[in-house]
Amino acid sequence: MWRVARLAGLLVVAVLLTGGGRPGGSAAVAASLTVVPTRVVLEGDRRTASLVVRNGGSAPVLVRVETLRWIRAVPSIATEPDRELIAVPPVFRLPPGGEQTIRIGLRQMPPLEREQTYRLLVSEVPTEEPKPRGGVQLALRFSIPVFVQPAGVAPRLEAALSRERDRLAVVLHNRGSAHARVNRLRIARAGRGDRLGEADPGYLLAGESRVVELSEPLPVGTVLEVEVETEGGTRSFELVVADG
């Protein structure tokens, strides 16, 4: 069984390997891994960076590192195999209390007009070590965003009204050349503050759009305020419901 939790752009996946034993008597065994930082940005001519993986648990852990091209953030994360981003070492063992530096870099820096996006997967490899009777073993996976940003790129957000499946919706477009990290998106009637729609935090890559359906139908002429809070500041848009 897979459990997935998204924490500010960091995807943590716990893989539960069920052991034997009576129901209700389970325990959990997991290495306490941390990865710092949780996001990497290669700006301008910078081609390399490093991360540190620490094992705060009481057992050794085998760790595997993979690189992927990040091709979509909305409506869900999509990746594909990649050979341009390199991570060293790709596999290592961490003793209890140990740490390892991972160095990442690009094979070459191609001329870019827009940001390139990748994901670095840092995964605990499940072992065959004995589990407590009736217990489970947790294996962690961290998905670290990596952004390659040439000089001059930036997000450019726009908002518009649309009808999705016969329901009114606000569409947030990123027409810029770099990602936007949306921390909060709130939709309300102008001057009233009633919440008609909101979106969970997440990334909007260059060229992507995010659709947020409204909670109720609205008459023609209704004025909406759309407030978008990003890491670069807060933007507000005013939209008017039109006929059709």
How would you explain this protein's 3D organization?
- The chain has 244 residues and is an all-beta fold.
- It has 2 domains: 2-149, Sandwich (Immunoglobulin-like), CATH 2.60.40; 157-240, Immunoglobulin-like (Sandwich), CATH 2.60.40.10.
- The protein contains no helices and 21 strands.
- Strands 1, 2, 3, 5, 7, 8, 10, 12 and 13 form a 9-stranded mixed sheet that branches. Strands 16, 17, 18, 20 and 21 form a 5-stranded antiparallel sheet that branches. Strands 4-6-11-9 form a 4-stranded antiparallel sheet, with no helix packed on it.
Briefly characterize the structure.
With 244 residues, the protein is mainly β. Helices cover 0% and strands 59% of the residues.
Task: Write down the secondary-structure element order.
Answer: EEEEEEEEEEEEEEEEEEEEE
What is the assigned CATH homologous superfamily of the largest domain?
Answer: Immunoglobulins
Q: Write down the domain tally.
A: 2
Q: Residue ranges: pLDDT <50 for 5 or more in a row?
A: 1-30
Report the C-alpha radius of gyration, rounded.
22 Å
Biggest sheet statistics: 9 strands, mixed
**Rounded mean pLDDT score:** 84
The CATH architecture designation of the largest domain is Sandwich
Name of the CATH first level of the largest domain: Mainly Beta
Q: Tally the helices: what do you get? A: 0
Predict the CATH topology of the largest domain: Immunoglobulin-like
Separation of termini?
Answer: 45 Å
Helix content: under 10%
Beta-strand residue percentage: over 45%
Number of strands: 21
State the secondary-structure class: mainly beta
